[in-house]
Design brief:
- The chain has one domain: Thiamin diphosphate (ThDP)-binding fold, Pyr/PP domains (Rossmann fold, 3-Layer(aba) Sandwich).
- It is about 40% helix and about 10% strand.
- It contains eleven helices and eight strands.
- The chain has a six-stranded parallel sheet, sandwiched between helices. Strands 5-6 form a two-stranded antiparallel sheet.
- The N terminus is likely disordered.
């Protein structure tokens, strides 16, 4: 007999569930590999991982159309991989190799792959929200059906660009979805200690005439369903959505952050009770998916990341002759000097 949980989820077919798990697991393994490469001194500078937040990137990416656009923060590895960008390209970019998505010139905080709809990762807090609105305005003006999705952290809700972008998108009913990844901490500070409302995104939605939407960002099924509704609304010409996804990052803000500001036991609690990978794996088994099918997904992902790692390691560094190319819109920098 079908369980209550199964009945609640039979709107998502087995193929899609396996895709959701594959995406989440790929992000987890690739992010862990990025951490290992950092410890080997192969990733220069710093990096910002999405360990523990994989369900958000997976849920939205699997609900998108191929021509939809993604705008990411500096914590953009997950969303870039979720849209299908090359694992070799991502790891190569982190290691500043010629095989990287931007031939090693962008690094961890600027991953971009326009061929997959990834319109960039942005290091300036909130800077990409108006850009996503601009992309949505372009789609509306030209009569295209693509939707812009902009991902941002809880701290961004206290930035002026957040409010300006929301206001403009609502006024012109633009096809853009705003996704707040509320992982509780804006860098090293708990979001509730510096924000006037409890839910930094959802509690401000009504000020712009939007529905207050709060979801479990560690449940890929809930994320996927919510994303589908938002995209249907946007494509129907009914304007933007603002979605607050409750989640938790299992690593520090960046590789330089040991996370000592967390209350004792908080990290362990989230890992034990609300890890998106563990939860979804258990759900697949509950739905009757065979253990060997799940194992095959995990083995294939591990092989893929292993092979990508070796290819990236063996790739040369970028040649000097590309140092000044793609710096400005005209392709170079000489005309400015």
């Amino acid at each position: 007999m079908a369980t209550k949980q199964t009945l609640q989820n039979d709107d998502i077919n087995e193929k899609k569930r396996l895709e959701l798990y594959n995406t989440q697991y790929l992000i987890r393994v690739a992010e862990q590999r990025a951490y290992d490469l950092f410890l080997e001194n192969l990733v220069k500078g710093t990096s910002h991982l999405s360990l523990g937040q994989e369900a958000i990137a997976s849920g939205f990416a699997n609900a998108m159309q191929e021509n939809d656009k993604s705008f990411c923060t500096y914590r953009g590895h997950a969303h870039t991989l979720a849209r299908g960008a090359s694992v070799v390209g991502v790891l190569g970019e982190l290691m500043q190799r010629d095989c990287g998505l931007m031939r090693g010139k962008g690094g961890s905080m600027h991953l971009t792959d326009t061929s997959k709809g990834v319109m960039g990762s942005y290091a300036i807090i909130g800077a990409h929200l108006p850009m996503a609105v601009g992309s949505a305005w372009r789609a509306q003006y030209l009569g295209h059906d693509d939707v812009a999705t902009v991902f941002f952290g809880d701290g961004t809700t206290n930035i002026g660009a957040f409010h300006e972008a929301l206001n403009y998108a609502v006024v012109y009913k633009l096809p853009v979805v705003f996704v707040c990844e509320n992982n509780n901490y804006m860098e090293y500070t708990h979001i509730e200690s510096i924000t006037a409302v409890k839910n930094p995104a959802a509690d401000r939605a009504s000020a712009y005439g939007l529905e207050s939407i709060i979801i479990d960002g560690n449940d890929a099924d809930e994320v996927y369903r919510t994303a589908q509704k938002a995209y249907e609304k946007a494509r129907a010409g009914e304007g933007p959505s603002l979605i607050e996804c409750k989640t938790y990052r299992q690593s520090g803000h960046s590789r330089a952050d040991p996370g000592a500001y967390r209350p004792k036991g908080e990290l362990e609690h989230w890992k034990k009770n609300n890890d998106p990978i563990t939860r979804y794996r258990e759900r697949l088994i509950e739905f009757g998916i065979k253990q060997n099918v799940i194992n095959d997904i995990e083995d294939n992902v591990k092989d893929l990341v292993d092979q990508a790692t070796e290819k990236a390691k063996n790739s040369p560094v970028p040649p000097e002759d590309i140092l000044t190319t793609n710096v400005y819109a005209n392709g170079g920098w000489a005309w400015r000097n």
